[in-house]
UniProtKB/TrEMBL annotation, chain A:
It comes from the Bacteria. GO terms for molecular function: ATP binding; ATP hydrolysis activity; copper ion binding; P-type divalent copper transporter activity. Belongs to the cation transport ATPase (P-type) (TC 3.A.3) family. Type IB subfamily. CDD domains: HMA (cd00371). One of its GO terms (cellular component) is plasma membrane. This is Heavy metal translocating P-type ATPase metal-binding domain-containing protein. GO terms for biological process: copper ion homeostasis. Residues 303-398 form the P-type ATPase A domain. It is a multi-pass membrane protein. The chain crosses the membrane at residues 169-188, 208-227, 236-253, 259-280, 420-439, 445-473, 737-758, 764-789.
TrEMBL record, chain B:
The lineage of its organism: Bacteria, Pseudomonadati, Bacteroidota, Flavobacteriia, Flavobacteriales. The keyword Membrane applies. This is Cbb3-type cytochrome oxidase assembly protein CcoS. InterPro entries: Cyt_oxidase_maturation_cbb3. The keyword Acyltransferase does not apply. The chain crosses the membrane at residues 6-26. It comes from Sinomicrobium weinanense. Keywords: Membrane, Transmembrane, Transmembrane helix. Pfam families: FixS.
Length: 795, 62
């Protein structure tokens, strides 16, 4: 058992079996050792001094990138190509620490053809410029793969070039701040008006300068509010932008009139301040996580190219060029891109990501294969029966659910309040106008009318939700619950039904529980078993290998892997067969729905290892906590084999549905919603994509947040699965905070209105009241959301 | 004329210079990735050191 504390110098994994030793350092596999060799040969050993065990284990890369030799495909990936200089932007999920940045930015030392490379850490992207005379794109990608930073190249890359970031908001923030600061400075003399002669003299100059400075703020920065309120009025709604745009417009016109006729300095200070604060609010609302994508569909899961066999030749073709009848070659661990028919070889297809079916299914020639499955045993040849866009899985995305934007389906709380707020404000304004007109004081009447609209401009109201929810978004992010945007919290707060997927969601995909059933194996047999498994790359073999305790490694005299069946090995006189029931000679033909590996030694059937689902820790306590408050449903694409276990584990009243196809899941969610339920869908794979999209809040559970996850509203790190009820509770509390802050801002409005209706609103009062209300509201919601979002008894 | 015109003009110009500086900074992509540069600047020294060691090795070999 001495091996247990030996960890790989490169990747930090514990070295099971015999570690590979080089220069007194242990490595878990030859891949890690190679990376170490590459780095140390090129004087990049500094990599290891920055972080303990920084590396990622390199995956298998050979032959995988042949399609990059196809120029049409390579060109799609390139960002820039001229005079042998090529620039490519690659997404590398493996980037995770400062050492990664260092080694990736020193790529030019590993290959002289590379001119420079630059990492975008938050986006997990690497930009490489290289000389195409010395190195090809394929070689660059291969180099990255060989040092453990395998780029992800998927169908997504084929379609869209990376969109330029939205910089407009930053410009607006700068301009609004510029206008606000300078106008504030210029209006100070008027605040402390002492009747001094020289100040009087310069008043018009100061005022017109303020007017000039407010122009870009009103017309450029606040332009969005006018556009948005115009749109909302046309569609017959009153969103929060309507009173804001009205307030800004009235403020600007009234101030201009004031300085034209010499009535006073106008409200330019309040006006620009308001615009500045609102822009900050908008900026906070838009900030989200750069490295996570919430918009992914099958395209980022599918490869960009596959190998087509035409005659004797093998060539890489773009996925969209596959036509019905094409013969394709699918290698081990490759994805099946289209619906097709198996022609040659035995296929073992893992559909877990597509259907939720936990167990790989084996298919023999002639069988139909569906797009999205992953081939896990050897090489097969298939014939496409449909094109990519017409395949069974991809058709899901042409359903209506994916056509509308989710945000547009729900009105947010601010707009709901605004629906009542705006008419009230308008009534108050008109009432005071008519009151003063009735008294015959025209001047005061217009004063009061405009003052009401100015003071009622719901700055604090519009700011409270973005700040409160934006802060909660960051708090959730620290607890590894990543939301797409702040409005998701509002939807989470209203949830009354929670639907869980099974495979990968409430079970852990990474670790399964393995139990042995049958005659116990003796010491030599265990050694033989482990030594045989050591040579196999099959996922089940790898899984089984890691749990076996034997340390004595034997070298087989004969070894044979029968793809799709099992493996066979001979050690002197001993013989072992590991594989499917039929292969190992299991007479008991009753097919168990569970995945199992059968063992046969010396032509005698011994028993089987059963791969069970391993439920996530804290599952039953989570369900118990949720069960009182929410309707709970388990919606699985898998078969019923786990029903009994689940019933035992979970509180009564949890509804369970099995054998659900992706579109059934979508329809189920829709049906719940039609019955008035507000649904949260918790899923993980493409098979949940429709349901996630249809649900009020779709949450994806991810073991690795950088790995692929389908389009959703939130990504939850699997380690925080048991905290789901906490997040729901905090969301509810957060909405209460927002409501309280609304009440507070109404109080400010009432105080302001009492000045306004009497026609006595002076610019100073407006300039004090407006920032005061905004700032106190912002502080209030920030403190309160921090309080409710704190982690309980965090050590 | 009066000094106040000059002062105000100067102050506005100074503020405008900062605004332009901000806009150029945004345009050049400084706000796109606000994390990596903070790490990268710590590498610089070591790189130079490494280069020197490479150079000396080259000299020794030649």
């Amino acid at each position: 058992m001495e091996n247990t504390d030996r960890v790989c110098f490169h990747c930090g994994a514990s070295c099971t079996g015999t570690p590979i030793v080089r220069e007194n350092r242990d490595f878990c596999c030859s891949g890690c050792r190679t990376v170490y060799d590459i780095l140390s040969e090129n004087g990049l050993e500094g990599y290891y001094s920055m972080d303990r065990t920084p590396g990622a284990r390199p995956g298998e890369v050979s032959g995988k990138y042949d399609f990059l030799d196809n120029e049409a495909i390579a060109e799609k990936l390139l960002e820039f190509y001229e005079d042998n200089i090529q620039v490519v932007n690659l997404r590398i999920p493996g980037i995770h620490c400062s050492s990664c940045i260092w080694v990736l930015e020193n790529l030019k030392r590993l290959n002289k053809g590379i001119r420079y490379s630059q990492v975008d850490f938050p986006g997990k992207e690497l930009r490489i410029s290289y000389d195409s005379r010395h190195v090809s794109l394929k070689e660059v990608v291969w180099l990255l793969g060989s040092i453990g930073y395998e780029p992800r190249i998927s169908l997504e890359n084929y379609e869209d070039k990376p969109v330029a970031e939205n910089r407009a908001l930053l410009y607006k923030l700068g301009i609004a701040g510029f206008a606000f600061g300078n106008v504030m400075l210029l209006s100070f003399p008027e605040y402390f008006e002492m009747g001094e002669f020289w100040l009087e003299q310069y008043k018009p100059f100061f005022r017109w300068l303020m007017f000039a400075l407010s122009l870009p703020a009103v017309f450029y920065v606040a332009g969005d509010y006018f556009v948005s309120s115009y749109r909302s009025l046309r569609s017959g709604l009153l969103n929060i932008d309507v009173p804001i745009a009205l307030g800004i417009a009235v403020m600007f016109l009234r101030s201009t009139a004031d300085i034209v006729f010499g009535y006073g300095p106008g409200f330019f200070d309040s006006l620009t301040g308001l615009i500045f604060f609102m822009t900050i609010g908008k900026y906070l609302q838009q900030r989200t996580y750069a490295s996570l994508s919430f918009e992914r569909d099958y395209k980022s899961y599918f490869p960009i190219a596959v190998t087509r066999i035409s005659g004797e030749r093998e060539e890489a073709v773009q996925l969209y060029d596959i036509k019905k009848g094409d013969r394709l070659l699918i290698r081990n661990e490759e994805l099946i891109p289209v619906d097709c028919r198996l022609i040659k070889g035995n296929a073992l297809i893992d559909y877990s990501f597509v259907t939720g079916e936990a167990r790989p299914v084996s298919r023999s020639p002639g069988a139909k294969l569906f797009a999205g499955g992953r081939q896990v045993s050897g090489l097969v040849e298939v014939e496409a029966v449909r094109s990519v866009s017409q395949s069974y899985l991809t058709k899901l995305w042409s359903s209506n659910t994916f056509k509308e934007k989710k945000e547009e389906r729900y009105t947010n709380i601010t707009n709901t309040v605004s629906r009542y707020f705006t008419p009230v404000v308008l009534t108050v304004a008109l009432l005071s106008l008519s009151y003063w007109l009735w008294l015959g004081k025209t001047d005061t009447a217009f004063n009061a009318f405009t003052a009401v609209l100015i003071i009622a401009c719901p700055c604090a109201l519009a700011l409270s939700a973005p700040f409160a929810l934006g802060n909660l978004l960051r708090i959730f992010g620290r607890r590894k619950f990543y939301l797409k945007n702040a409005s998701v919290i509002e939807r989470l707060a209203t949830i009354d039904t929670v639907i869980f997927d099974k495979t990968g969601t409430i079970t852990s995909a990474r670790e399964g529980s393995i139990t042995y059933e049958g005659e116990p194996l003796n010491r030599t047999e265990e050694d033989m078993l482990k030594s045989t498994l050591r040579n196999s790359a099959h996922p089940l073999s790898r899984q089984l290998y890691t749990i076996l305790k034997s340390n004595n490694i034997l070298t087989p005299d004969e070894y044979e892997e029968c793809i799709g069946k099992g493996i066979e090995a001979t050690y002197r006189e001993q013989h072992i067969r590991i594989g499917s029931g039929a292969f190992a000679g299991n007479e008991d033909r009753e097919s168990s729905p569970k995945t199992s590996v059968h063992i046969n030694t010396n032509n005698r059937y011994r028993g089987k290892f059963i791969f069970g689902n391993r439920y996530r820790q804290g599952l039953s306590s989570l369900f118990r906590k949720l069960s009182g408050k929410y309707r709970l449903v388990i919606l699985s694409g898998d078969n019923e084999s786990e029903r009994k276990t689940l019933e035992k584990m979970l509180p009564p009243g949890v509804q369970m549905c099995f054998n659900r196809k992706p579109e059934h899941k979508l329809n189920y969610v829709r049906q719940c919603q039609q019955n008035g339920a507000r649904v949260m869908m918790v899923g993980d794979g493409l098979n949940d994509a429709g349901a996630l999209q249809q649900s009020n809040a779709g949450v994806v559970i991810a073991e690795d947040t950088n790995a692929f996850s389908p389009a959703c509203d939130a990504i939850l790190d699997a380690s925080r699965f048991r905290e789901i009820h906490e997040f729901l509770r905090i969301s509810k509390k957060g909405m209460q905070v927002v409501k309280i802050s609304f009440a507070l801002s109404f109080l400010y409005n009432i105080a302001g209105l009492s000045f306004a209706v009497t026609g006595k609103l002076s610019p100073v009062i407006a300039a004090i009241l407006m920032p005061l209300s905004s700032v106190t509201i912002v502080i209030f919601v920030t403190l309160l959301t921090n309080f409710i979002g704190r982690e309980p008894n965090n050590p | 004329m009066s000094v106040i015109y000059i002062l105000i003009t100067v102050s506005i110009i100074v503020a405008a210079v900062f605004l332009i500086a901000f806009i150029t900074a945004v345009r050049s992509g400084q706000y796109r990735d606000s994390y990596t540069p903070s790490v990268r600047m710590l590498f610089e020294d070591e790189l130079v050191e490494d280069d020197q060691s490479c150079n000396t090795e080259n000299k020794q070999s030649s």
